[in-house]
Amino acid sequence: MQLELRGITKAFGPLVANDHIDLTVEPGQIHALLGENGAGKSTLMNILYGLYEADEGEILIDGEPVAFSGPGDAVAAGIGMVHQHFMLVPVFTVAESVALGYEPVGPMGMIDARAAAARVREISERFGFDVDPAARIEDLPVGIQQRVEIIKALSREARVLILDEPTAVLTPQETDELMGIMRDLKAAGTSIVFITHKLREVREVADTITVIRRGAVVGTADPSAPAGELAGLMVGHDVRLSVDKTPARPGGAGLTLEGVSLVADGAVLLDDVSLEVASGEILGVAGVQGNGQTELGEVILGLTRPTAGSIRLGGRDITRLGVHRRLGAGLGFVPEDRSTSGMVADFSVAENMILDRYDDPAFGSGPSLSPARIRANAQRLREEFDVRVTDVADPVSTLSGGNQQKTILARELSRDLRVLVACQPTRGLDVGSIEFVHRRIVAERDDNGTAVLVISSELDEIYSLSDRIAVMYRGRIVGVVDPDTPRGVLGLMMAGVPLDEALARSDVAVATSTEENR
Length: 518
Fold this sequence. Notes:
Blueprint: E1 3-12, E2 15-25, E3 30-34, H1 41-48, E4 56-61, E5 64-66, H2 71-76, E6 79-82, H3 94-99, H4 113-127, H5 142-155, E7 160-164, H6 172-187, E8 191-196, H7 199-205, E9 208-213, E10 216-221, H8 227-235, E11 253-264, E12 267-278, E13 282-286, H9 293-301, E14 308-313, E15 316-317, H10 323-328, E16 331-334, H11 338-342, H12 349-352, E17 364-365, E18 368-369, H13 371-384, H14 401-413, E19 419-423, H15 431-448, E20 451-455, H16 459-465, E21 468-473, E22 476-481, H17 487-494, H18 499-516
Parallel strand pairs: 3-8, 3-9, 6-7, 7-8, 13-20, 13-21, 16-19, 19-20
Antiparallel strand pairs: 1-2, 1-4, 4-5, 9-10, 11-12, 11-14, 14-15, 17-18, 21-22
Helix pairs in contact: 4-5, 14-15, 17-18
C-alpha cells in the first residue's frame, strides 16, 4: 500500500504545527520521520491516524484520496499506530487488550475468547514475538507491552504501521529486538513510519529519512548520511555531536547517599540506595524511565523525606533539612519537568532567574526587592548563557523549550555550588541546545570542582557526560561502572541483571558472534 500526504497543514491558534507537509511512504518501506521534540512529527501522524483533522491538504492511499473522521476510519483503511505512551489496560490479558473494540463474536453473540487468543498466538508466532495471550499486561516488561501494541495493530490488518518514538522506554537490548521486528515486518510487506529524534536508530533501520523542523519538511536524506549532516538538518546549523571533556580530577566529598530507601503507600520506590559523587566528577544515573530516578531527585532536593538512610552534602548531614536550606548549603537542582517544577510561567525571565535567591541581599534589602538589580542580573546571565529573549521582562512562557532550560541552568549555576543535580537536563531540546547544556555541565565540573549527578533516560547522554555510571532498576542501584562499559552490558543492567552476570552474558554473546562469523 502506498501512502501519500499532500500539503498537510495544521495550526493550533497562532502556532503552525504542520506547514504544507508532503510525504510519501512506499509499500514495504521503513520511512523515518526525523526531528526534534516539538517539530510537528506526532501532530502529522495524529492527523494520519484520524485523531486530528488537517486544516489543509489531503491523504491518499494507492493514489485515491481518503478522509478519516476518527481512528476507526484509519484502522479500516489499513493504518495502525503504536503511541509513545501505550494504550493498554493493565488488568487485561494480552488477548483481551488486543481484541478490545474489535472483539470476535462466537455463537449466541458471545465474545469468542479462544478466537482472540488464537489470533494473538498466530501473529506472535509469525513474527517471533514470543507473547503469551493469557499473560496480564501489568506483569509484562515494557518491551513486551510494546509488542502487544504491534500485535494489536497487525490483528486489524494494518498495512502501514506508525511507531511514535518507540524506543523511548526501551533498554538497548529491547531496542535492538524492536529493530529486528521492524525488519521482519518490512519483509512481510508492511510499511512503517518510524518517528524519532535519535540519529543512531534511523541510520540503522530506515530506508529513507524525511527531516522536519518547525513544522515543515526541510529535507530528505539517505540513512548512510553522516550523523552530523542529519543533525544539521534538524536544527538548521552545524553542531558538534560529541562532548569535549578531559578526564575527571575527583576531589573531596561532594554528595553521599547511604542506605536511602523510600516507601509510599506500601510501594518501595527507592531500595537501599548508596551513592557517592566526588567533587570534580560527573556521575550519571542510567535506567529506563520509571525505575526510581524521579524519586531519587526529589529525595536529594528535599521534596520527599526518605523512609531510611542518610544524605550528606560536602560531609554535612542534610537528611532532615528543608529544600531552601539545602539550596543554601550549595545544592543546585535542574528538575526533570521544567514547566511544572523549574519555573513560574507567568513570571518574567528576570524573576525566574532569582526564584531560589529571592532573599539574597544582592537583589534587595529586607522585604523589598530591587527590580534594577534583578534586571541587571538577568542581562548578565542572558549574555553568558545565550538565552534568546527579546526582553528579560518578557514572561518565561514565551521562550522556546531550549531557552527555558537555559534560564533554569543560568539560575542554578549562578550560585556557588558544591553539588549540581541535573535531572533529564536536555529533555525536549534541539541538538544545538543539547550541545550548549552539555558544555556548561562539563564546565561546572572542571572550572568549579562541583560534584555533578546527571539523571537521564538518554543513554547516549549518559555515555557522553559521565565519569562513572550508576544503573537503576526498580528503585535500587544494580551497579556502578566506567563509561567505557559496553552498551550491551549496560542494557542488561537496565533490565535488572547484576553487573557480574551482565558481564558474563556479554562475553558469551561476543564469543558466540565471533564463532558464527568464522
